[in-house]
């Protein structure tokens, strides 16, 4: 009985080897054709500039954040995270020509997301285009009424309308 089981196991294992390419490895390993030497390639942390840019933006170092996001865009020109960070940094530096261009690239990619509408609305608010900013803030609020940033942006817009010169009432 034991010999029969062993013989059957041997037959099954040999049958499984038939699919193996000549000179190749088992199904659990790479074949020589697919295993390439990549030791001569330089490692590039593709998200490092974006991560650094976000930290710098949060620390209000907008010029340095702008440069990090620009570096990220040099590597991957249409990366949505890099475009969004670049546009926001450009807004904070008053570089609206740069931010408007970035938002134009972002619109077809993430144009119906809350992040886009909040940021685009804030950009338009900074540019003094209150009606257009309101449209984006309302759209962000419609997407997610529980989003605190969307609600805060609407309040910010309301205060901007009440005090267009930027000074609060005394």
Describe this structure in words.
The protein is an all-alpha fold. The protein is built from eight helices and no strands. The chain has helices spanning 2-16, 48-58, 62-75, 80-92, 96-110, 114-126, 130-143, 148-162. α6 (114-126) runs antiparallel to α7. Mean pLDDT is 80; it is low at 14-29 and 165-170.
Write a brief caption for the model.
Helix 4 (80-92) packs parallel to helix 6 (114-126). The protein is mainly α. Helix content is 65%, strand content 0%.
Q: How many DSSP H or I helices?
A: 8
Low-confidence stretches: 14-29, 165-170
Task: Return the average pLDDT rounded to an integer.
Answer: 80
Radius of gyration, rounded? 28 Å
Cα distance, first to last residue?
99 Å
> Which shape, going by the Cα principal axes?
globular
Helix/strand-derived category reads: mainly alpha
What's the number of extended β-strand segments? 0
Content of β-strand: under 5%
Spell out the blueprint of helices and strands:
Layout: H1 2-16, H2 48-58, H3 62-75, H4 80-92, H5 96-110, H6 114-126, H7 130-143, H8 148-162
Helix pairs in contact: 2-3, 2-4, 3-4, 4-5, 4-6, 5-6, 6-7, 6-8, 7-8
